[in-house]
Amino acid sequence: MSSAPRWLRRSRPVFTLYMPTLPFVLFALFPLYFMFVTSFKTNAELYDVNSVPFWIGRGVTFGHYQLLSNDTFFWSWFVNSLMVSVAASAISVVLGVLAAYPLARLKFPGAESFGVAIFITYLVPPSLLFLPLSTVVNRLGLSDSLWSLVVTYPTFLVPFCTWLLMGYFRTVPKEIEECAMLDGCNRLQTLIRILLPVAVPGVICAALFAFTLSWNEFLYALVFVSPAELKTLTVGVFSELIRGDIYYWGGLMAGACIGSFPIVIAYVFFLDYYVSGLTAGAVK
Amino acid sequence: MAASLVERVVEFKTLDGDVAKVVPRGDGHARTLSDVLVSDASVAYTFVAPAFFLLLFLVAYPFALSVWFSLSDARVGDAGGFIGLDNFQRLLTSSIFLQTLQNSIVFTALALGLKTVFGMVLALLLFRITRFKRLVRGAVLLPFIVPTALSTLVWWWMFEPLYSVVNWTLRALHVVNHDIPWLPDPYLAMFSVILVNTWRGLPFFAITLLAGLVAIPRELYEAAESDGAGPIGRFWHVTVPLVKPVLAVVILFSTIFTLADFNIVYVLTKGGPMNMTHLFATYSFALGLQSGQIGQGAAVSLFLFPILLAVVFVQLRVVRKSTTYE
Predict the structure, then answer these.
(1) CB contact, 8 Å: A246 with chain B?
(2) Chain segment B69-91, per-residue pLDDT in tens
(3) CB within 8 A of B232, min separation 6: which ones?
(4) CATH of A65-283, one of 3.40.190.10, 3.20.20.70, 1.10.10.10, 1.10.3720.10
């Protein structure tokens, strides 16, 4: 190996490392790139079998975005998604912090069973509960209202936030809290003044994931809310831009682009939080 | 004055078992929140209560309701009556349900297999990459973050019968000379659904396994190397055993979420063609909501529950124990 010329040794990672990684990156990014490109193509180009599909060949159009704005409730869906996601995430982070603290720190009868219960509900998929939940939502008089989502999203967000924050709180040395308590703080004060400031990254992480999970939610939003103007973005784009046999592909892609945009922006700024949140559940 | 203060000194045990003495502040006072939060247990219950009642009312109660529905002939707008195990009996003799069962096994097994193998390969690559590290990791993780219902729309467009970019490429490369019916053909539809699930789930595997790889102490590799182990020997004898607990957790988590998948199948195929891509979630949706047979629909979705329990059991018993070396 040492006899190999220097340029070869230097360029070896290109062949053994970067070239094999390239297909994975292309596989991950191509659909998203294609979504973006499609949303700016004219219909003439979209529905021409002979045009090269990989780039925009015959001029950029904003027609699909105009169709979204003018002919659908798109911006209502956007605002609905935003309101539901912010409300559900705020509720879930607060409940998650409150529940995670005793589970991580205090000894109390039933702690272990409650921990297991949290873990089980963390793993309950929405597709197991959407039928009975729609009955519950009905009885509460919340069907066809955004409140149905604000109330039901925490069922999967609270276990997630609790689990994540529990792991996070355990990494904070408890001595600093004990000092505060000797100085006369009670548990609530220690939690708010001592532990939370140290655990800010964990809280941000929980909030980011809660927001992302709510924004991306599809099944509950599809089942609980049916008036077109009250839909969330994921459901609205899917169900209102396919009319019978007519598919507004340009509009669908434009909606998918704007619908992915806030999440991608948050993601670019908080990549490390996403990575740590993703691995926290599995590695801890 | 001094004496009364001493009398009010409170002793309490810290978590380490030390006894600490605290002189409560404040003077003769009304009961405030801080007084309620005195003992650890009452603090704990107060803090846990909101989450507990939420989960009791919106998870445990609906679950019980679901069990009741599955034992009844409830329909939309009709509470129905108890009919025992009829729904389950009818399902187990229904060809559509048996097809759904088979689809679920095929879908989950293949998607999990693909995600495990390629997730491991990708994790090993990401582990060694030093240049553009953040950029590459960020790019690879993206499909997991973007809303699935929306990203599946673009896959639908990519598999569209007439204007499919996949077919266009294959024709341009002269691999095929006709359009491949990705979604109308039952087997290709299953392939497509598995492909999209793999696309979305691969980042979770790769990034989590990467975290597992990073946690392996470098000394172990050096020791193996000095014992004469080559790259392949190091992989099988150092990497695999040490990454196994993480791998097990990832596979367990993914088993549930792959099996319970709704979004991808519903958007891409709606369970068709000819029910060949129905999974428990989409079939339960079709039965319970679209044809209004809530009892049958609930029975279908409950088939997810034993698998959920099995995963929780394995996770809590086996995986937890094997990782206590931390």
Answers:
(1) no
(2) 999 998 887 778 899 899 999 99
(3) none
(4) 1.10.3720.10
